[in-house]
Amino acid sequence: MTTNPWHSVSPGEKAPHIVTGIIEIPKGSRAKYELDKDSGLLKLDRVLYSSVYYPANYGFIPKSYCDDHDPLDILIISQVECVPMCLVEAKVIGVMQMVDGGEADDKIIAVAANDMSVNHINDISELPPHFINEMRHFFEEYKRLEKKEVKVEEFQNKEVAEKIILDSFKMYEEKFPELAGK
């Protein structure tokens, strides 16, 4: 029997300030992997249609749930590409709020807590403006050749991000009451 990381991994004792991120897609990849919600395994959803690459390690926060019926997404900035299904202790620094296919689809932005090259960053305002532009560009472009529209609305600070994380934990508890206490 496969253990499903969405339901069996702790989001971290220091959440919402520092959370456990489960990597689905390494930084620099064109492969769109995502968690198969039933089996807990990782599946290749597609190869990106556009010649763009994920600007940061991408995954989700366990025991979270959002309006798009998925766990809460997280981008984890690090100098290295993390392998899929790797657990990463991630210091939350902000959130990118966007709309994908007409639905809200927030992306928490964090830095790898155990990467000395980035763990000094405490808020999204400390990121280079060009990196913010790269993230915006990637998410607004990566589905364009599929004839799908993504709109990045705004980047918010860590306080807003932490509230979104706490709300996603509450939504998880409401959606999966039988799993919430485990």
TrEMBL record:
Cofactor(s) annotated in UniProt = Mg(2+)
Per the record, its GO cellular-component terms are: cytoplasm
Q: Which Pfam families match?
A: Pyrophosphatase
Q: Which GO terms describe its biological process?
A: phosphate-containing compound metabolic process
What are the UniProt keywords, alphabetically? Cytoplasm, Hydrolase, Magnesium, Metal-binding
Q: State where it is primarily located.
A: cytoplasm
Q: Which reaction does it catalyse?
A: diphosphate + H2O = 2 phosphate + H(+)
Official protein name in the record = Inorganic pyrophosphatase
